[in-house]
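Progress report, Aim 2. The chain analyzed during this reporting quarter is listed below.
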Amino acid sequence: MIGVQLAQQLKEAGLTWKPTLGDRFAIPDRDLDDEVFVLSNMTIEVHTTPEGRVIGFNGTTEWALDDVEIDETTWLPREDQLRELLGGSFRSLGRDESGYEARIDLLGEERRFTAATADEAYAAALLHLLASAGLP
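Predicted structure tokens for the chain:
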């Protein structure tokens, strides 16, 4: 699982989250930085309100948190989600004694991104793609 800091970099680079069941997320800057939440139809759901979309914490008695705006959360995409987001640019993932290397093709040039874990290598490649796309 990628950390909140790397996930926040993806968010700032323009990655948008369309919440689906099973997605993990964090709520930074609310003394919950070490907590990972999972979107579930049993306790945590996305609700559409006149003010916008919010994540509702249904039936959570120990938390003084009814809902939080999606903009206040940080999506923690899984390895498979990161790989899918790389789309047609993804070429391969390799591993050696030093870690993982994700390879992508960007405008006919192979780019390589290494990290300790596969999901971190995918995230680094995705950050590069987002920056190349010129998103805010």
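The first strand starts at residue 24 and ends at 27. The chain has a mean pLDDT of 89. These observations will guide the mutagenesis work planned for the next reporting period.
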